[in-house]
Amino acid sequence: MNTHDRLHVEIFNDAMFQENGLLLWCAGEPDCWIVDPGFPPQADQMAAAIAQRQLALRAILVTHCHTDHIAGIGPLRERLPDVPIVASRAEKDMLGDAEANLSAQMGFPIVLPDADQLLEPGDALALGSLAWIVLDVAGHSPGGLAFYCPEVGVVITGDALFAGSIGRYDFPTSSRERLIANIRDNLLTLPPETVTYSGHGPTSTIGHERHHNMVLRMELGE
After folding, report:
1. Handedness of CA 176, 159, 207, 122 (dihedral sign)
2. Which of 86, 102, 128, 193 is 20 to 30 A from 152, alpha carbon to alpha carbon?
3. DSSP label at 83?
């Protein structure tokens, strides 16, 4: 578990894609979020952690609707059917379309119900007493979002920006130009000490990636 002032973040990593599912909550407050629940055993581990910590799951947030970031939604909704799914408005049709979310191509089609809440860049969210801002990081996927909490200096980047790399842009709905522009304009403009939680790999900071991410610097033409 990582702690950033009042915010606690626990990472759950799946064995198939090494995808990072996140459990977030504030110290002394019961409400929690799950972000990007992936393949087993993530859903079981997350549900057990919520029960052990006596938390109340208020939402399942999705940075983008690719299969490795949504595979745990079904198992979690079986346990907690009333928990809302929160996803990008630009990807509103992907949860229920196994071709669009890439699960059909991988041989295990995933079809999920529609999101209960659709987000756009600039929207505001609240986890307990912490305010979050929704950022546009589309490019790896058609409507990818990041979730930024200025008060504690944390941003959840999905598959846009990794420690030492960036997201793929070779999928049919990807765009290199959009991805690089959104990283440059919406992530690299955050304070350099901002801690990054990405969809795969370790945590980092915006400042470290700005100066030491050679893949990103090459894409920026530096």
Report:
1. positive
2. 86
3. S
In the numeric block, which tokens belong to residue 100? 């669009």
Could you tell me how many residues make up the chain? 222
50: domain CATH number is 3.60.15.10
**Whether the Cβ atoms of residue 144 and residue 63 lie closer than 8 Å to each other:** yes
The DSSP annotation for 133-145 comes to EEEE-TTSSTT-E
Q: Domain range holding 93?
A: 2-219
Q: Is 51 exposed, middle or buried (CB count within 10 Å of its CB: 0-12, 13-18, 19+)?
A: exposed
**What are the pLDDT digits (tens) for 123-165?**
999 999 999 999 999 999 999 999 999 999 999 999 999 999 9
Q: Where are the beta strands (DSSP E) in the chain?
A: 2-4, 7-13, 20-26, 31-35, 56-61, 85-88, 117-119, 124-127, 130-136, 145-149, 154-158, 161-162, 165-166, 195-198, 204-205
Cβ within 8 Å of residue 217, ≥6 positions away = none
Strand, helix or coil for residue 8: strand
In angstroms, rounded to a whole number, what is the distance separating the alpha carbons of residues 68 and 21? 10
Q: Give me the number of domains the chain comprises.
A: 1
Cross-strand partners of 204: 196
